[in-house]
Amino acid sequence: MSDSSSDDEEDDDDPLSRMANRIDDKGEEEGEDDGGDEDPLNSDDDQSDDEDLDTLFDSTNIIVCQFEKVSI
Hints:
The protein has 72 residues and is α+β, with helices and mostly antiparallel strands. 43% of the residues lie in helices and 11% in strands. The protein has helices at residues 4-13, 15-31, 53-56, and strands spanning 62-65, 68-71.
């Protein structure tokens, strides 16, 4: 029979486990305060509806393949 408490002690001595536990603890604390810096939807930075819809959706037949521009 093995003593289960000795297995727990081995996990505590593992530096990777300790680092992972610290990262998990830090992530939980930081995750609680998200969303305070973002602008709300329908804010002043949205595009206006006054734009001409023809120019808004005007496009040509262009295909971009990786980093090369190919015109049809």
